[in-house]
Specification:
The protein is an all-alpha fold. The protein has 22 helices and no strands.
Amino acid sequence: MSRLSLTLKNGWIALVFQLAYVVVQFFARNIFLENLGDEFLGVEGTLRSMLMFLNLSELGIGAAVGFSLYKPIFENDREKINEIIGYLGYLYKKIGLFVLISGCTLILFFPLLFKETDTSLSIIIYLFFSLIVGNLINYFFTYHMFLLEADQKSYVNVKIYQTIHISKLIVQCLVLLYFKSITLWVTLELLAPFIGVFILRKKIKKIYPWLIFNFKTNQEVKERNKPLLKKIKQISFHKLGSFVTTGTDNIVIFALINPAAVAFVGNYQMVMGNINILVNKLFDGTNASVGNLVAENDIKNMLKVFWEMMALRFYFAGTTLLLMYIGLDDFIILWLGEKYLLTNSVLAALVIIFFIFQTRQPVDSFKQAYGLYDDIWSPVVQSIINLVFSIFFVIKYGILGVFIGTIISQFIVVMLWRPYYLFAKGFKVSTAVYWKGFIQHLIYLSFASGLFYFIFHLFDTEMSSSIFILIYKLTKLGIVFLLVYFMVLRLFSKGFKNLINRFYPLIKKKLKKNHKH
């Protein structure tokens, strides 16, 4: 299959499974809030953030291995693939032991950390243990999945894990409704990863029968992979910046506001996180495609694909941004009740963070494919800016302050520095090319939004009486905006025009094939 065909396959499979997961998750969240309470879910969100902190030790390994696999996959060098995956396993097992020891040490401080909560300390410890075990299984047994991702077969991983996640949520709901047991609910968190790893390993063995699952990493292999270890250390700093920018928000809210506020924010983050994932699923497999493209080293084609990706990101990010701002508050009211509403300013901040995250992806994809991680100072600066401004503003503005800090750090490092670094060191062309194209796409989005604003008044803007009516209304508005924005990009965006010209023959060929059958 071609790069584009594999990218499309990864995208539609991931999208279908994610949509199913989102539907189940929304129903489940409602049942969880009713049966577990705001405080327990706030504690759970905090524990997950703590686990992210422990996982800092992993930072960079997966991304570096993905980057190092593109070339041997392109050259079908199975010996090198086995060596890289084996070396990954060697590193991951060391990380797993570190996470286990650190997690056990952190549990000793739980009586102090959670003394203000009404949730049983034994349940908190059991939940944290269950989450850690799920992570350790990945470190010890499922690191082979990086080969699937680098080989543009991430749909295999998606099918298995999303099926497990959906099944787990359904059974957890039944446990709460019929048995009212928090202990059983947590036990399901513990069991689900074991089922996933068993199925995934069987599938990987079938796809790659030549893959050595018990590869011995000797001193010679360690010596040969010293450049990879250097790359891992560089990427670790970058992942640290990403963690501090996103992973510490809940910890700051927990520490400086209260545990229940984490659950309130978590409702919005869950909705926006799922929308973010859904949009990203459309692009599933593009990182591997970009890695393959960079391996070919055709700068003209790389820039062409970059602007195609940027135009498409703007198209979906712009549409979802608009619909979230219009309908998210109404959705929260209908889904959970007016009690769980956050202010309009917090919603606006979350929407801006979402937009930055989406439009940065083309830069991140090519930066990763080039292996450009020498700027280890930038994530350190990003982390410091984020924490300092978040703590400063949370005292003054509450929850909003946390996200103001995130926006400031993202803008300075992610929006300003990273594009400069990619274009100067990767593409080796003037950064003015990037800013010209990026600002043009902002103008196209603004123009489409202005046109839509006038059309929007033709529609019913009253509060919807049910979630289904709200979804129907937002779907209508979304289709209108997609059409308006499509016409604007089709007229003005060169990247979007190239994208249409690329997809048209593929769709035509597919239709002809179906017509023959």
